[in-house]
Every structure is written in structure tokens, then in C-alpha cells.
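quick one, 272 residues, struct below
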Amino acid sequence: MTNFVEVSIKTNSIEEQEQFIALLEPYFIGFEQQEHHLIAFAETNTYDHQSTAALLNQLNSTFTVKELVSTNWNKQWEENFEPVIVDGFCTVRADFHHIPIRTPLEIIITPKMSFGTGHHATTQLVMQIMQTISFEEKKVLDFGTGTGILAILASKLGANQILAIDNDEWSIENASENVLRNEISNMQVSDNTLADFGKASVDIVLANINRHVLLDNMDSLFGLLSIGGVLVMSGILISDEAVLLEAARSIGFEIISVKQIGEWIAVHCAKR
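---
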């Protein structure tokens, strides 16, 4: 049985949480954003308390650390994970939910420690944009797949081939389980990087990550797309909208639309 460490960090804003996530990402396998706290999770046997504590102390952060047994984690998300209906077209539920489905599409997700249950605004924003895009016979890359929820939706919307990548071993395992749970046969989950893909090799890229990763990889994402290809990106705060749009336009993307929920946005771009 795998045990986990839960680090609860007191924060003042979503922007501050995003900054912490960018700094702490190398040390943790998942994050949960609450109103006044950022909760970070790591496996006990790989948790580097000395480095994490030194960094958080340097940032003058107030934090607590406790050990969380994996069975408790599963019980915790099962108790708090309610079905989600996105825009009336897709229901996201766990396999233990037994509810009548009244939407055209359904996705079954067991999130474990991975990001992407349909509850977060960024996931919903990307899903909303996805229903406006034609996926029929398209090759799709899900960059930073988490639970695999967006890649699974791409398959259900008619994509021909889906490549889902993540640098987190837990996410790869979780996404692979969710692929089987949803009986998806045209999706491959791996730890490949963008460098493993050729130029103009995909038609649609889904990238629900964060500002820093998006800015660092904007050139590569543009190069991967075929002419007329689409990039949907989120994990972006309203305060970062201008810098993301400028970066996208400067490379050659045309901005199709920007959607917003609360403090979060998603951007729909096309390569012309």
C-alpha cells in the first residue's frame, strides 16, 4: 500500500497558488486548490521534506505536513466527488455513481491523485470549447493529460487517433486505467515529450496546464500542428491573458475565442 504526504500551504490568492504550483511541481505529484490553501501531495518514499520546507520557508509560507494513507485518499475523493454536467452535453462521473445520464456523452473518471475530474473551471472551459470543434477523423495530442479526461472526450467526439502525454508516472497510470474504463481503443498514453513528435504531425492540441509551461512550449506546439490545426489551452488566469495572447499571436496563431469562468480562461487558437 502506498502512503502519501499532504502539505497544506496557506495562500492569499489563486495567483499565488499558481506561482507555488510552478515552483513545487518537481516535488509533488498532484495539487488541490482550495479557497485559502493549496494542498500538495507526494508519495512518502519520494517526498523531499528538506528541500520543500527550505523553499516554503524562503517564501515566508505557513504550511503543515501530514501523512495520508492511500485508502484514506480514495475515501476522501469518493466522499467529495459529485457528478459534473458540462454545458448539458457531457456528464463526468465516477464508476460508483449510479445516476440516469441525460447528456449525449458520458465519461467515467477515477481521479486518484491526478488532475482532471471535470470540477475545475479550466477543465470545463476546455470541454466547452471542444464541443465547438470538429474532431472527426482528426489526430489529437493531449499535452499534460492528467486523468485523461480531455483525451477521452476527444475520442468520444470522433477523433481518429489520440496521443496523451504526461511527465507524471501517477497520471500515466491513472489515465491508462480511465481509458480502459471508458472502453477507448484509439488512445495511447505515454511519457513522451513534445520533442518526440514530428512537425505538422497533429491536427488538434489540448493543453490544460499552466502559464509557464504554455509559454515555454508555445513554439513547439505551433510546430506540431498542421496548417489549419487547432490549439486549445487553459490553466490560465485572467491576469495572464494578455501575455498568453501576445505570445500566441507573435508565433502565428490566430485567436478564435477566449472563454472565462471566474478567474480562469481558456483560449482557442488556430494555425493559419
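The first strand starts at residue 3 and ends at 10.
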